[in-house]
Specification:
The complex is a heterotrimer of chains A (about 120), B (about 500) and C (about 475).
Chain A (H helix, E strand, L loop, with lengths): L6 H19 L3 H23 L19 H32 L4 H7 L4
Chain B lengths: L5 H18 L3 H26 L5 E4 L10 E4 L1 H28 L5 H20 L3 H20 L5 H31 L4 H11 L3 H18 L8 H7 L2 H26 L2 H7 L2 H21 L4 H21 L3 H32 L10 H4 L1 H15 L5 H16 L2 H27 L13 H19 L2 H16 L3
Antiparallel strand pairs in B: 1-2
Chain C lengths: L2 H21 L4 H27 L5 E8 L2 E6 L2 H27 L5 H19 L4 H19 L5 H33 L16 H14 L11 H4 L5 H28 L1 H7 L3 H19 L4 H21 L3 H32 L10 H4 L1 H15 L6 H15 L2 H18 L1 H8 L15 H19 L2 H11 L1
Antiparallel strand pairs in C: 1-2
Helix pairs in contact in C: 1-2, 1-4, 2-3, 2-4, 3-4, 3-9, 3-13, 3-19, 4-5, 4-9, 5-6, 5-9, 6-7, 7-9, 9-10, 9-12, 9-13, 11-12, 11-17, 12-13, 12-16, 13-15, 13-16, 13-19, 13-20, 15-17, 15-18, 15-19, 16-17
Classes of the chains: A mainly alpha (about 120), B mainly alpha (about 500), C mainly alpha (about 475).
Chain lengths: ~120, ~500, ~475
């Protein structure tokens, strides 16, 4: 097995687990969102790295280049990034409202105020 | 000419109407637009259903770019039913929403409410109708994001934290699905469902494919509220505005079940999913555990909305149980219960919405004696409750019958016991409400009247549907059997 | 009127009557008149169906088809028509009684009472005339639900508790056992219609048949076979007309009727005899007969005593079914009829005593016979019927059951019947004897008068019924033979 050659997947897994850990372990709502972003970023890297073609250039049509990386994953990831941005924006908006309503963005404080999280 | 483009119009109309709602600053206009669009969407789904009722499949290439390079919208007996469920529930609930939302959501936010509603509708319809897996992910996120917004608009401040929790878990689920899709693309190079099915069939049993299935199942399981991934559901249903609870309870999990069916049976071949990966036993155990544990937890809830939310998790368990039986009877039962549960929970949550409108609360203690003060509302609740328990002559009985029949056919007796136990537990928690409403005297100072007609009409529409589809099941059972035949027979 | 229409009518008329009663709620006289009219029309419809049913040719009609392949269908066959006759006739009598009782006792929510009473009767007719197991199951379930508001009528904590036990046991047995049995039968044979000779012959191994039969017998909780009998005493919190008609006639008889029908038309006597699956259940029935009688002895509350007596008497009928020969089944059929008339009279008396003197316990009844001679007289005669002494009809049921037991080779069961009869005497006869010959309580505050006239008329009719059945049981025996063939 070619461990070092598959380094992109190892990075993906690392980022994914880091992000997941932050989401679960952190009590601060904004940090949870950061963890979520890390998690999503790992998936972006998964897609892009799978789309690379050896010796391929960036998938933009221009003269003199005949081998391009696969453009489809790039397009998919652009979409996913937009989704990620929207999610983060929504999440942060909710955090702002929660701060207004509870006076805190720490999970434990909110919990104590009313058994909700 | 319009007829050809119906599949894309089904999704495009609500999508385009959503920002229009934003521009109409008066809540009344926004609501009217939303209702009109919902009605048209319902009309479209009915036309689509009539075309595929006989077993045909409609295939529509977006922008004229043919599959598998272009995105394909594909309507067959399985998703035509889902389209009808989503649009019908949306229409009925919008009829209810005008009065209910006016009371529960702040005035200036009502246009935004209907905008988000239309976006959610777009998302759900898109998931159901698309034949491209990445398109499915996009619509999934559209519907999820808009439902986070809708839930967050609830009155109680806990709606905000419920929405946040749902956001975190839902995004993780969707990202897992994205990973699964990525892995599938990696091995096959295509994103079209039918194309994937043919390519996966020859690929055999590689570890990437197995991993993809695993990620997809867990991701969809999160959206489905499959035990133990259901932790977001009780809070989300309880603190959302009444109309939102109805809409989401009756549609979101059903669409997730549809996603599961598509992936487990069409994209991955059933023999792979349930043979090599033996997902059947795994799903059955989780479903059974879900049914028993959540039904038991329901019994101890003081808030009736929360009680019914846990009950919804149990009902999803029934659907997954049917799927795990991997027989045409089991799938018929699962698809049938999909339909019937939308009716049941829709009626129940609508009745609760009426109660919330008059009383301002849905605590169990608060509804004492309500059977006399709000007879029509509570009668609708009783009809929905009887359907939930599975009393003959209601829709719920028919799904239970098919589920038990499917389990007996496979000889899986423990599952039969689980189904029956679930019903008996349902009697216990539902009857707490019935007893409180009818057999306890109302407090003296309680001065509520019956809910207004605008709320009662949609409630009784769904309650009546429960009884109608319990007696005349030609449509529901017919569609379910067709869907089951397509899913078990199809191989790409 | 065609037979099809009559068949559909027997189920639909009481339900329409319920609707009419609900709408006429504000006018008590109109409401009661509608109830009576519905009962009379129902009886006329059942009588219309009698000749064809007896001729061996069963007319049938389909109401709906909820599940493809399973229809809600009604047909008129001998046993069903008999049950229908008894139930519809006694509905009219009970309505007359109810008018006296509900008004005399000043009960609240009378419209709700009459409405659900009519619905319950509609379901009873549905059970009586069911053409297949599915229809039987559907109406059986809806019967449980429609009688719940009647059981919990009083709305007190006790009533709620009683309602919970009632609903809990009946739903648990019907969903847990009966539904499973019906689905299993459907899967084994692809058929659930009641057919002469049964449908399960050769469909499965004796062990499976045995388990299936046990599921049916215990699943039909309304037959009150121990240990699923607790719902019956719990249901005594209901107003007396409910206890009288429903829990002495309609609901409980629906249970044993279902067992009889399933024994003959689903399993078939030959299959049951060959596989011997009923043997162990005979001991359960015998146990119920004896133990319920002993418990009845120890009850001071009159209605509770009558409830345990009913549990015991129902097991007579079940025992007859389990003996699987035509004499025993004739005994069961006779007992179904005679016990209905006898028990309903006893409950009528209990209710009359409650209304007139507010007494509920046996120990309080000393000397009451002097103020309420007609009531206690009816009680005495009905007790004789339950015990099984001439000139009251109850004798014939026990007679044929004993003969059936001997035919089947279970002489020990004759002994069980005899001991039970002695116990019946012990818990029933002292009541009227003490009423007539005992010394009244010194602290008799209120002037106790006889029961309301409507109650007395009702009691009189049912007592005459008991006597009539003594002198003319042969039509029932013939009907029973028809049923078995």
């Amino acid at each position: 097995m070619d461990f070092l050659g598959l380094y992109n997947y190892w990075i993906v897994i690392l980022l994914m687990m880091m992000g997941f850990y932050v989401v679960i372990a952190s009590g601060h709502l904004v940090k949870k969102l950061i963890g979520l972003n890390l998690f999503q970023a790992s998936v972006f890297i998964l897609y892009i790295s799978m789309g690379t073609v050896e010796g391929g250039a960036a998938p933009i049509l221009r003269n003199g280049v005949s081998v391009f990386s696969n453009p489809l994953p790039h397009v998919l990831i652009l979409t996913a990034i937009v989704v990620g941005v929207a999610t983060t924006a929504l999440g942060l908006a909710l955090v702002v409202r929660i701060k207004e309503a509870y006076g805190s963005v720490e999970e434990e404080d909110i919990h104590r105020q009313d058994d909700s999280l | 000419m319009i007829q050809e483009h119906l599949p894309v119009l089904q999704v495009a109309l609500p999508l385009v109407a959503a920002p229009l709602c934003l521009l109409l600053t008066r809540a009344m206009w926004a609501w009217l637009l939303a209702l009109a669009v919902s009605l048209v969407a319902l009309g479209i789904s009915i036309v689509l259903l009539r075309e595929v009722y006989t077993g045909e499949v409609i295939s529509y290439a977006i922008g004229g770019w043919a599959a598998p390079w272009g995105i394909e919208y594909r309507v067959d007996a399985v998703n035509a039913l889902i389209l009808i469920i989503v649009t019908a529930i949306s229409t009925v609930t919008l009829m209810f929403a005008k009065t209910s939302v006016a009371q529960e959501v702040a005035g200036d936010k009502q246009c935004l409410f209907y905008t988000a509603w239309l976006l959610c509708l777009t998302g759900l319809l898109g998931i159901s109708i698309t034949g491209d897996v990445f398109n499915l992910f996009v619509f999934l996120e559209i519907s999820s994001l808009s439902s986070y917004v809708l839930i967050g608009l609830g009155q109680d401040r806990r709606a905000l934290t419920a929405s946040f929790q749902y956001l975190i878990m839902g995004t993780i689920g969707a990202t897992l699905i994205l990973i699964g899709i990525g892995l599938l693309y990696m091995v096959t190079g295509t994103l079209n469902m039918m194309d994937l099915a043919t390519r996966l069939a020859v690929l055999g049993d590689s570890r990437t494919v197995q991993t993809a299935l695993a990620f997809l199942t867990v991701g969809i399981g999160l959206k489905l509220a499959l035990f133990p991934l259901h932790l977001w559901l009780p809070n989300a249903y309880t603190y959302a505005p009444s109309a939102v609870t109805v809409f989401i309870a009756a549609t979101a999990t059903k669409v997730a079940v549809y996603m599961l069916l598509r992936f487990l049976f069409d994209v991955f071949d059933a023999s792979f999913t349930f043979g090599a990966m033996s997902l059947g036993g795994f799903l059955a155990v989780l479903a059974a555990a879900g049914i028993l544990s959540t039904s038991t937890v329901s019994i101890f809830q003081d808030n009736i909305k929360r009680m019914l939310a846990y009950s919804s998790v149990a009902q999803v368990g029934y659907m997954v149980l049917g799927i795990s039986l991997v027989s045409s009877a089991g799938l018929t039962a699962a698809v049938l219960h999909l339909f019937n549960h939308a009716l049941m929970k829709g009626a129940l949550f609508l009745a609760l919405g009426c109660v919330a409108y008059r009383l301002g609360t849905v605590r169990l203690g608060a509804i004492a004696g309500l059977g006399q003060r709000m007879p029509w509302t509570m009668a609708a609740f009783v009809v929905g409750a009887l359907s939930l328990i599975g009393i003959p002559l209601t829709a719920g009985f028919v799904s239970k019958w098919y589920l038990i029949l499917a389990a007996v056919e496979r000889g899986w007796w423990p599952l039969v016991v689980v189904v029956v136990a679930g019903s008996l537990l349902a009697i216990i928690y539902v009857w707490r409400v019935v007893e409180m409403a009818y057999l306890r005297p109302a407090p003296e100072k309680l001065s509520v009247t019956e809910a207004p007609i605008s709320l009662l009409l949609p409630t009784w529409l769904l309650a009546g549907a429960n009884v109608y589809f319990g007696i005349d099941t030609r449509f529901s059972v017919g569609m379910a059997e067709q869907a089951a035949a397509l899913l078990t027979g199809s191989n790409g | 009127m065609s037979e099809q229409a009559a068949l559909i009518g027997v189920v639909v008329v009481p339900l329409l009557g319920a609707l009419a009663v609900m709408l006429a709620g504000s006018r008590p006289n109109l409401r009661e008149a509608i109830s009576l009219a519905a009962g009379v029309i129902l009886l006329a419809l059942v009588v219309r169906l009698l000749p064809r049913a007896l001729s061996g040719d069963w007319p049938a009609a389909v109401l709906a088809e909820p599940i493809p392949g399973l229809s809600l269908a009604v047909s008129a066959e001998p046993l069903g028509v008999l049950f229908g006759l008894i139930a519809s006739f006694l509905w009219i009598v009970t309505t007359v009684y109810s008018i006296g009782y509900m008004r005399g006792h000043g009960e609240a929510h009378q419209t709700r009472f009459y409405t659900f009473f009519a619905v319950a009767m509609g379901c009873t007719m549905g059970v009586a005339f069911a053409d297949n197991l599915f229809t039987l199951f559907v109406f059986y379930e809806v019967l449980t639900l429609s009688t719940y508001p009647l059981v919990t009528h009083a709305g007190t904590q006790e009533a709620r508790q009683g309602g919970r036990t009632y609903l809990g046991i009946l739903m648990a047995t019907s969903m847990g056992f009966l539904l499973l049995a019906v689905v299993w039968t459907w899967k084994l044979t692809g058929n659930v219609s009641f057919t002469s000779g049964g449908i399960l012959g050769g469909a499965a191994s004796p062990l499976v048949i045995g388990v299936l039969f046990a599921l049916y017998v215990f699943g039909i909780g309304k037959a009150a076979l121990m240990p699923f009998h607790r719902w019956l005493p719990a249901a005594m919190v209901a107003p007396t007309p409910v206890s009288a008609l429903l829990h002495a006639v309609a609901v409980v008889k629906a249970g044993v009727f279902a067992i009889l029908k399933i024994t003959v038309y689903i399993f078939g006597l030959d299959l049951l005899r060959d596989t011997g699956v009923t043997d162990w259940l005979l001991w359960v029935a015998a146990f119920t007969i004896l133990v319920a009688s002993v418990i009845a002895l120890r009850q001071d509350n009159l209605k509770a005593r009558l409830a345990y007596s009913t549990i015991s008497q129902l097991s007579y009928i079940v025992m007859g079914a389990l003996l699987v020969n035509s004499t025993a089944l004739a005994g069961s059929t006779l007992h179904l009829a005679t016990h209905a008339f006898g028990k309903i009279t006893l409950f009528f008396c209990a209710g009359a005593i409650l209304v007139a003197s507010h007494k509920t316990k046996v120990s309080q009844l000393d000397g009451l016979g002097r103020q309420m001679p007609w009531t206690m007289g009816a009680f005495f005669l009905a007790s004789l019927s339950i015990v099984g002494l001439p000139p009251m009809g109850g004798m014939w049921g026990k007679w044929y059951l004993a003969l059936g037991a001997i035919d089947a080779g279970y002489v020990v069961l004759v002994g069980v019947l005899m001991v039970s009869t002695l116990l019946n005497i012990a818990y029933l006869i002292p009541v009227p004897i003490r009423a007539f010959l005992g010394k009244a309580d010194a602290g008799g505050e209120i002037q106790i008068r006889e029961a309301p006239i409507a109650c007395l008329i009702a009691m009189g009719v049912t007592v005459v019924g008991c006597v009539a059945l003594f002198f003319n049981p042969t039509w029932i025996v013939q009907l029973a033979h028809q049923f078995v063939e």
